[in-house]
């Protein structure tokens, strides 16, 4: 059934926009009039985009993860109440206020109504629905527990968003301080310091080393700031290119795991994501090898992914998945031991969920600790920079006072 974009007037004469599915444009107009909505313009959505994945829609549309999670939870509730899938999708497409998301839901409903599975319909939107999502929905459809799986997916997505928000919140303040502090120092050294040091330059006396360094630094920033900015941009894009190469990516990922203060937080985030994702996939009925393959692509670290690949090889040979994890420096002994206990007791899924909750709490604690270290460090660095400027200005003044005295 085609999907149409429409602009119309409601009973109060207010202009509204939305989407509607109907057999034809005339049927769409009649359907709108039946809702006391008077269409002004109706255009059929791009059929090609509906059939070939709609990557452009998912890539550029303003669809937030929180909105997707909310829709998934509502869909799980409707299915759990016994509402048919097509009817549930139709209700959701009318309720959501995001036009782009309305289109996606309507297109999914259209494909399901045509006989495709929900998994196939969701897979056409890879920017919105990850491989974890698709595989869990596939397992839910196969086992007849789609509502349970969707509810679990909504909870999983919400927890991931909460974790990301906490990490972003912890980094925003130090970054803000760095930017504002850098701008203040730039203005101070470039525009204010030269007016003060001009007096020293006219004294025809040997100036202290800190003062000479400050004057030269001021001249460089004032006359060549554009070159410094261009060099920084070139360096940034060069580093991005290097990180995009296999060797550069390995170095970058290793530094992320080992760097002071940030490294422990990154490792705990990876461990929490590993345990949470693997546990959710296994609980939803996805096979162990498929689950590990998905997790390997989600950890976003080549070193940890290599350990998971080795662990998959061990599982193929009939060995325990914890053999490779135990030998890796990235998986703590307690983490490996808890997974091993879960394997031996046959409760691997439940043990993984316990581990994920434990490490999510540790991530929160580590973020607070990281912030408590970064903030005073930034303040100390700013204090050192300002102190250097003040000292460089005061030293010649002290020398002049001594000569006068």
Q: CATH topology of the largest domain, anyone?
A: Receptor-associated Protein
Level of helix content? over 70%
Q: What's the CATH architecture of the largest domain?
A: Up-down Bundle
Number of strands: 3
Number of separate helices: 17
Q: Order of strands across the biggest sheet?
A: 2-1-3
| Uncertain residue ranges | 47-60
Domain Type II secretion system protein GspF: 72-194, 274-396
GO molecular function, one term: metal ion binding
Function: Component of the type II secretion system inner membrane complex required for the energy-dependent secretion of extracellular factors such as proteases and toxins from the periplasm.
Pfam families: T2SSF
General description of the model:
- The protein is mainly α.
- Helix content is 77%, strand content 5%.
- It is built from 17 helices and 3 strands.
- A 3-stranded antiparallel beta sheet has the order 2-1-3.
- Helix 10 packs antiparallel against helix 17.
- It starts with a strand and ends with a helix.
Question: Which helices and strands, and how do they pair?
Answer:
Blueprint (H helix, E strand, L loop, with lengths): L2 E7 L5 E7 L3 H10 L3 E7 L2 H5 L3 H6 L4 H16 L4 H11 L3 H15 L4 H6 L7 H13 L2 H56 L7 H36 L1 H13 L3 H22 L4 H11 L3 H15 L5 H6 L5 H13 L2 H57 L1
Helix pairs in contact: 4-5, 4-9, 5-6, 8-9, 9-10, 9-12, 9-17, 10-17, 11-12, 12-13, 12-17, 13-14, 16-17
């Amino acid at each position: 059934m085609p999907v149409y974009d429409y602009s119309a007037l409601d009973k109060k004469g207010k202009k509204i926009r939305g989407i509607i599915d109907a057999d034809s444009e005339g049927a769409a107009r009649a359907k709108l009039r039946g809702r006391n909505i008077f269409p002004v313009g109706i255009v059929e959505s791009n059929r090609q985009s509906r059939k070939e994945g709609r990557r452009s829609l998912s890539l550029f549309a303003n669809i937030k993860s929180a909105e997707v999670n909310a829709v998934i939870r509502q869909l799980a509730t409707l299915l759990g109440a016994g509402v048919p899938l097509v009817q549930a999708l139709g209700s959701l497409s009318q309720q959501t206020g995001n036009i782009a998301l309305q289109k996606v839901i309507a297109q999914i409903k259209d494909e399901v109504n045509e006989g495709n599975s929900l998994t196939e319909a969701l897979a056409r939107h890879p920017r919105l629905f990850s491989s974890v999502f698709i595989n869990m929905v596939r397992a839910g459809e196969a086992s007849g527990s789609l509502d349970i799986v969707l509810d679990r997916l909504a909870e999983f997505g919400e927890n991931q968003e909460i974790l990301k928000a906490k990490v972003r919140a912890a980094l925003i303040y130090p970054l803000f301080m760095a930017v504002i502090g850098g701008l203040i120092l730039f203005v101070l050294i470039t525009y204010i310091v030269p007016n003060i040091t001009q007096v020293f330059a006219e004294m025809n006396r040997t100036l202290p080393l800190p003062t000479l360094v400050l004057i030269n630094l001021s001249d460089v920033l004032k006359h060549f700031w554009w070159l410094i900015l261009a060099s920084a941009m070139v360096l940034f894009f060069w580093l991005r290119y290097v990180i995009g190469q296999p060797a550069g990516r390995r170095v970058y990922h290793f530094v992320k795991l080992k760097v002071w203060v940030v490294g422990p937080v990154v490792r705990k985030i990876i461990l929490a994501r590993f345990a949470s994702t693997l546990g959710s996939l296994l609980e939803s009925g996805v096979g162990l090898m498929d689950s590990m393959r998905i997790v390997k692509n989600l950890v976003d670290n080549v070193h940890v992914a290599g350990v998971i690949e080795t662990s998959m090889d061990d599982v193929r040979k009939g060995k325990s998945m914890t053999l490779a994890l135990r030998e890796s420096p990235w998986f703590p002994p307690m983490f490996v031991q808890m997974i091993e206990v879960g394997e031996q007791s046959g409760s691997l899924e439940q043990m993984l969920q316990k581990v994920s909750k434990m490490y999510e709490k540790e991530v929160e604690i580590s973020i607070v600790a990281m912030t408590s270290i970064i903030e005073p460090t930034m303040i100390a660095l700013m204090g050192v920079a300002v102190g250097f400027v003040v000292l460089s200005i005061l030293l010649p003044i002290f020398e002049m006072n001594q000569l006068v005295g």
